[in-house]
UniProtKB/TrEMBL annotation, chains A, B:
GO biological processes: tRNA-type intron splice site recognition and cleavage
Name of this protein: tRNA-intron lyase
Residue span(s) of domain tRNA intron endonuclease N-terminal: 36-108
Chemical reaction(s) catalysed: pretRNA = a 3'-half-tRNA molecule with a 5'-OH end + a 5'-half-tRNA molecule with a 2',3'-cyclic phosphate end + an intron with a 2',3'-cyclic phosphate and a 5'-hydroxyl terminus
Enzyme Commission number: 4.6.1.16
GO molecular function: nucleic acid binding; tRNA-intron lyase activity
All residue ranges annotated as the tRNA intron endonuclease catalytic domain in the record: 120-205
Domain of life of the source: Eukaryota
Secretion signal span: none
Length: 237, 237
């Protein structure tokens, strides 16, 4: 299943303005203004100027909060988005109770009690973003994320993403029984998405690399129903 | 969500020919001819005469096997169907390797290694059938069963049924994470079915009642999305 562009000219528009370029502009702008995000409950609040607001919207990070101020715009980031901007792009500092969370260990210990599977969701989100996919919540489709080839205004999401622990650690997660597979695949089919399962494995025993992301490996599996017709040597159309 | 009848006159037809009557006719006919089912792998094979074939089809049990013989028709029953006919209706004897399975313990020990959750599926199937629901496999919709108010030729299935172990024993099953709920409810909604979850509890410690079904209690829960509009005191239409 290829990308489903929204209307004429959407593909050309996307090609002319690659996501990687938008994100690196955003990164430079954030680093220049030494941007700080405030951790509040399960979200991170970010104060952006006009240029940054434009870049955040184009890169599809966070959700703008309605306010009357024309020069400053507040954004609400999910934990995965905050993690990515902070520890992969290293362009946002996260502040929790007036304390700067300097490394991922401090971030984990601050966030893990608030949400199960949080660790894996952050790693998976970063994995897809680093490949220039636009990633949004998949709760509408009963998955963790959906992944877009470019901005959701230009293209429909292509992948429904489930994030699972690798190496037989998947004790509480999804896809442990056939009925769950059948349910998920039928739903993905009906909304024209491919099911992508990301298994998150921790490398080594507590080895800490310069970037916390290098402590993990991500295994990608696309899951589709097997169609006997398509597997014949003389394939049908 | 009420029943969705298939075309004009379907409801009247169903009312004129209640499922309970069809099943009790089938039961009498089976007892009279001392019917035996042969356990083969994960199915039970049944040889039916013309009258029994008609009753099996009308009550929607099993799947007829195509053959050339006009007087005799073979039927393939699922394990749940065989369990119900054998231990709830007590009108079929099940034979496994030339040995008659006299009680449910013998049946369990013969079948359990072949399929996980088999116990619970049989109890749930019987529970619904005893209330005169027609029960078929729900694998098409990623659930264990679908339940029809009458024969599937007359009405669409109303419930998508998931069978879970009760009392915190649900270690490997469905609906343990939010994304699974979201997925299942979205799919059920899109095919106009209500999600019915049956929790199977075992009563007492190994107490054996005259019928094995009395050893279990079934807890029914219907799951729907909460719609704030519908919960207001001055309800909308």
């Amino acid at each position: 299943m290829g990308p489903r562009w929204k209307g004429k000219g959407a593909e050309a528009k996307a090609l002319a303005d690659p996501m990687s370029k938008i994100v690196s502009q955003l990164r430079l702008s954030f680093i220049e203004s030494d941007l700080q995000g405030l951790l509040s409950g399960c979200i991170v609040l970010l104060e952006a100027n006009a240029e940054q607001t434009d870049l955040l919207n184009r890169a599809c990070f966070g959700r703008p909060i309605v306010n009357a101020d024309k020069d400053k715009q507040w954004f609400q980031l999910s934990m995965e988005e905050a993690f990515y901007l902070c520890f992969a792009l290293k362009c946002v500092k996260i502040i929790c109770n007036d304390k700067w969370l300097k490394n991922d260990e401090e971030f984990w210990s601050c966030m893990t009690p608030k949400r199960a599977n949080f660790h894996n969701l952050c790693i998976a989100y970063s994995h897809l973003r680093m490949k220039n996919w636009v990633v949004r919540s998949g709760s509408q489709f009963g998955v963790d994320f959906v992944a877009y080839r470019h901005h959701p205004a230009l293209v429909h999401s292509e992948y429904a993403v489930l994030v699972l622990s690798g190496k037989d650690e998947n004790t509480n997660g999804r896809l442990r029984v056939w009925s769950d597979f059948q349910c998920t695949l039928r739903l993905c089919g009906s909304v024209a998405k491919t099911l992508l399962v990301l298994y998150i494995n921790k490398n080594g025993n507590g080895v800490v690399f310069p970037s916390c992301l290098e402590n993990y490996s991500v295994e990608e599996r696309m899951i589709t129903r097997w169609n006997p017709e398509q597997s014949r040597e003389n394939g049908t159309k």
